[in-house]
Amino acid sequence: MAAPMRRFLCSAAVVFMWFALPCFTLQQDQNVESFFKSGHTNNWAVLVCTSRFWFNYRHVANTLSIYRSVKRLGIPDSQIILMLADDMACNARNPRPATVFNNANQHINVYGDDVEVDYRGYEVTVENFIRVLTGRLPPGTPRSKRLMTDDRSNILVYMTGHGGDGFLKFQDAEEISNVELAHAFQQMWQKKRYHEVLYIIDTCQAVSMYQLFYSPNILAVGSSQVGEDSLSHHVDPAIGVYIIDRYTYYALEFLEKITPTSKKTMADFFQVCPQHVCRSTPGVRTDLFRRDVAKVPITDFFGSVRNVELSLTTVPLSNETESTEGGAQVQKQGEEEGRKEQPKRYGFVDQFPAMAETREKETSVSKVKFSSQFLVASSAFLALVAIIIFGRIAS
Q1: Which of 87, 215, 306, 310 is the most exposed place for a label (fewest CB within 10 A)?
Q2: Which residue range is the domain that position 283 belongs to?
Q3: pLDDT grade, residue 146 (50/70/90)?
Q4: Strands 196-202 and 241-245, bridge-based pairing
Q5: Residue 354 counted as domain residue
Q6: % residues pLDDT > 70 (the chain)
Q7: CB neighbours of 336 closer than 8 A, spacing ≥ 6?
Q8: How confident is the prediction for the chain on average, in pLDDT?
Q9: Where are the compositionally biased (Basic and acidic residues) regions (predicted)?
Q10: CATH of the domain at 58
Q11: What is the pTM of this model?
């Protein structure tokens, strides 16, 4: 009786493994697929202040406010293109040299101690801005002035200055139209220079600047409707000018409460400055964006949070990413006859900022999820074992 029983148990164990292993593999594949559901692998930001002169202090403060937020949430300076048409921190009229405040109480110095301006003064032109977006820069341009993005890059584009119906002025000398901007984004899409774009503009009649967009995966936000002015928030008596615009002021107030692990979404961000607060009517355009904004984490654009998961098993991933640089496709290796194909190596830069404070490690018990097929197979196996044991006892 013992030998047949052992043979039966061995057969049952083989059947159990036959059903259980595919269930583990299926669950693993589902985890991998959901792990990379955002679709992007890196974050970039292009922040542009188009105004000169001391009385436009607020536009510099606007741009530096967003700059401060994206750096704090993890986008390094190497992946931020900062364009400032004037240097308010070193202006002779500034009573507090080397500082730019966006609040009369001087709570936050948005200039900081480690600001890196990539384009300043007369370098901030329509031509340079378009060249940065499209990647059509002279060969000698340093990497710090290049937007080195690819088809897996999420890009935040923020612009502020003086504008009107269908245009934004650059330094009171030239202007960029909504047609030129729309075509620039289309070139970026055709050259696989972005995965998703969040376009924010804080200026008068801001909505008009994205009305002609026609490229996919663009989410656009404007501080005012056509025919409306985008108003300033308050004056600092010590400086003597308005120091920040209303929309960016409340956007910064919202972003200051965001952490890299925040669960806030883009839908929450769209509510930061309602009409009764902004005095203008902010606009949002989502028809070109493929995802539900209520499910898009705000850190998909304002942060650089990489998903990390430790696993003891090997997960095969197909390599479908084509390497690009400067918008031009790089020919795949192995095209030449007799040439041995070399494996591609990918590296990541260190994230900013480095956490100086040592946080307490949170111990958590990893939760294992079992599929329905695995549970059925396990139940059947246990039932068989129970029947055999009770039969043995009864006999």
Answers
A1: 310
A2: 42-302
A3: very high
A4: unpaired
A5: no
A6: 73
A7: none
A8: 81
A9: 333-343
A10: 3.40.50.1460
A11: 0.71
Is 73 part of any domain?
A: yes
The two tokens of residue 101 are 């405040």
Cβ neighbours for 159, distance < 8 A, ≥ 6 positions apart? 48, 50, 168, 200, 201, 202, 203, 209
Q: Is residue 205 part of a domain?
A: yes
Sheet containing strand 119-120, edge to edge, reads 119-120, 80-84, 42-49, 153-160, 196-202, 218-222, 283-285
Which tokens belong to 246? Answer: 């209303």
* Active site residue ranges: 162, 204
Q: Domains in the chain: how many in total? A: 1
Least confident of 46-60, 241-255, 302-316: 302-316
